[in-house]
Design goal:
The chain has one domain. The longest helix has 13 residues, at 46-58. It has 63 residues and is of the alpha+beta class. It has helices at 13-20, 24-33, 46-58; strands at 7-9, 37-39, 42-44. It has a 3-stranded antiparallel β-sheet with strand order 1-3-2.
């Protein structure tokens, strides 16, 4: 996984799910794993995008 930074402003899990193109349940899982990190309403979603891309490639979330 890369260490790229991609900062977005999101005030809820729904906002993050729209930014990342996944469900709110997946966003909560990413938060629990520490893959998506916040600083107030500013979120670094770069690692989460990489993780979701790799999971989609491997069929992890969309089997």
């Amino acid at each position: 996984m890369s260490n790229r930074n991609e900062l977005v402003v999101a005030s809820s899990s729904q906002d993050l799910s729209e930014v990342l193109g996944c469900t709110e349940d997946v966003v909560e899982d990413l938060r629990d794993k520490g893959i998506v990190a916040s600083s107030g309403e500013v979120w670094d979603v770069g690692p989460a995008r990489d993780y979701l891309r790799d999971a989609a490639w491997a069929g992890g979330f969309w089997d």
